[in-house]
Amino acid sequence: MSSEHRRLPQPSPFRQESYSPGELSGECGKEWQSMKINTNEFVEVAQRELTNKRTRTLLDMISSVVDNLRDSAMSSFPDPSAALEYGRAIRAESLARLPELLDQFEKNAVAHGASVFWARTADEANQFVLDLARKRNIKYVTKGKSMVTEEIGLNDALAADGIDVFEADLGEFIAQLLKRPPFHIVGPAINVPVDEISALFLKKGLIERATQDPVELGAAARRYLRQKFQHLEMGITGVNMAVAETGAIINVENEGNIRFSKSSPKTQVSFMTIEKVVPTMRDAMHLLRLLCRNCTAQKISAYVSMDSGPKKPGEIDGPEELFIVILDNGRSAIYANENLREALRCIRCGACMYGCPIYMKIGGYPYGWAYSGPMGQVVNPLLLGLDRTQHLYRACTLCGKCKSICPGGIDHPKLFLLYRSMDVEGDVQLKGQSRPWLEQKAMNILSCGARRAWHWNAGVKGARPVVNLHARGNVISQMPLLGGWFRCRDLPAVGRKTFRERMKETGQY
Amino acid sequence: MTNPREDIFSRLNSARGTELPQRPFVPPLSEISHDRDRMIRAFTDNLTAQTAVVHHVADFAAAAEKLAEVVAAENIKSVVVSSDAVIRKLDLPEWGRKHNLTVLQAEDCTGREHFKNMVFAEADAAITGADFAIAESGTLCLIHDKDQPRLISLAPIMHIALVPLERLFPVYESAIDRIFGDPHNVPSHVTFITGPSMTADIQGVPFKGMHGPKKLTVILIG
């Protein structure tokens, strides 16, 4: 979603204390390639972020506040739980009828004069935009905030072809200048301190003297991007909802960057993934209510805009041509698996992130890609494969908070457990790794031993003295081959006899 | 090489269907039962919470006076105006001559670039009508067409909207049903506007006027 307003408390800790640049953000100095996938570095980055004073202060401060804000925004519904359930039902139905709704959406969008382009892969989508930009002799584009274009690395593809890309959402603009991935889906640069933004803007010539005032920095970005908006020839945006009933696409935002990108240029390109479609306008209105309340604790964002085709004859602004790129990028394969399908219900509100005890400790960088927090843990393994996202679906306490608040009705913990089991079983489609030879053998022996009572009893009897060989005092904190398990756990030494043996000895059995 | 559309649809269609889940009852919206006064109050409270200013005047003559007052208080010299039904009724070119203001209109432009220069560089403020006002969140709904260009309500630093009270409705659906009711005659662009442009992207500090207007004033008429 593209709403940027979070009504956070005034973050006084950042204004009063000063931090050395190294402390300010864990990744200071390290230039992220704009959309390099770093999901495999989860543990390392998470450990670094845990000791990052800046990230800790920010997350500790907002965790208590944001969840309450969201709660109170939801309570502005006459019946919040009915509203939540209805939204979940819309998303469930949207997926159940997905092929039919996509077909209907396309027919209606085309009837209004939009051009629909289908793309199987990120490359096909990027290539389409590149060809279009070349044909139209485009020098630069502005982008409204859009996660799907982050997913497919559109900025890099355009830049490689000499077309400048300006992220126009303030948070994305800062993240782009810093060459860093988004910290949060809603606030991509919410963690970057004012000093750092000020230094960055000075270096890029956006301001003439350093400032600690966020408003002044925002005004500088406004001045800079205003020129781009005025002379814009091609604007690129995402889509929050695509309505089958009317063929309209809907964008939700607070800043106006998407409205500019859709009003000023002659050519508009809107990217959506196949699951963005909803049945009716009324459904879209209900989801809009849920999206804004869950995303930024607003009843509605400052701007919601809906397009049905390009501008009509006689209209002086708005695009002469509207292209809607409908991207699959692996989703139809996910759809084919009934157990995985519900992952596509996500409406990108980001509520699960603020609810998550893991995200709230480590922030967004460890997830290593466009999508972070529980929604990233659900989506990334499906899009990137179980092999590259091992730590993501294992980094979960299964507390179920995300599931309880999700307006899409996703059961995140169930999916994480499913990913874990698919990984152990070596699922081919999702590139499950199965287990190392030794672990598999150990499990075989265990299952063999557990099938017959006498096997089990003999095994238990034999294993006890061996296990206790590693006890120091009364605690076992290390055993050969099980280093990983003991990394953060201790085991009390086991008794020489089992409970049942002792019961027998006392004659009460 | 196969067609991407066919590929995607063949995968989707061959996936096993799940049973169509049953929908619960449509959740209630309390605004639907509001009378006119409560709707005005809800609209005003919700929009004022977003730092917009809402005035309520008796008729169009009073609206023109209030408009002059607002413009004078903001020290505005030039306004760009749309030409939808509400605005036409006010005869703003004449009003501008009377109050010594430059009144800019899209119909005087030679084309897109000329128009863009007008809204980006020349106008201090914008005056538009609104096709609907929605009580549940204090939202203005603008239908964009040749009389109501998109950039007028976006590029100038101040936006003033005039709304006759018969256009005030309780919930989004009231507007949406009317706009999209006839599928063959749908406007190319519709916006909901609730307060000025805003952001909180730097450390969660909210401020208005990120890209669009910094101020929004609404004059309710009737």
Secondary structural class of chain B = alpha/beta
Domain tally of chain A: 3
- What oligomerization state is this entry in? heterodimer
Number of strands of chain B: 12
Secondary-structure element string of chain B: HHEHEHHEHEEEEEHEEEE
Gross morphology of chain B:
globular
Strand order of the largest sheet of chain B: 1-12-7-4-2-3
Figure out the total of helices of chain B.
Answer: 7
The structural class of chain A is alpha/beta
Report on the biggest sheet of chain A: 6 strands, parallel
Protein name (chain B): LUD domain-containing protein
Domain LUD (chain B): 41-221
InterPro entries (chain B): FTHF_cligase-like_sf (IPR024185), LUD_dom (IPR003741), NagB/RpiA_transferase-like (IPR037171)
GO molecular function (chain A): 4 iron, 4 sulfur cluster binding; metal ion binding
What does this protein structure show overall?
The complex is a heterodimer of chains A (509) and B (222). Chain A has 509 residues and is α/β, with parallel strands linked by helices. Chain A contains 25 helices and 13 strands. In chain A, the strands form three sheets. In chain A, strands 1-10-7-4-2-3 form a six-stranded parallel sheet, with helices on both faces. A four-stranded mixed sheet of chain A has the order 8-5-6-9, sandwiched between helices. Chain A is elongated and about 100 Å long. The termini of chain A are far apart. With 222 residues, chain B is an alpha/beta fold. Chain B has a single domain (34-198, 213-221), classed as NagB/RpiA/CoA transferase-like (Rossmann fold). Helices cover 32% and strands 23% of the residues of chain B. Chain B is built from seven helices and twelve strands. Chain B has helices at 4-14, 36-48, 60-73, 85-89, 92-98, 112-122, 172-180; strands spanning 53-57, 78-81, 102-105, 125-129, 132-134, 139-144, 158-164, 168-169, 189-193, 198-199, 207-208, 215-221. Chain B has a six-stranded parallel sheet, with helices on both faces. A four-stranded mixed sheet of chain B has the order 8-5-6-9, sandwiched between helices. Chain B has a two-stranded antiparallel sheet with strand order 10-11. The longest helix of chain B has 14 residues, at 60-73. The mean pLDDT of chain B is 96.
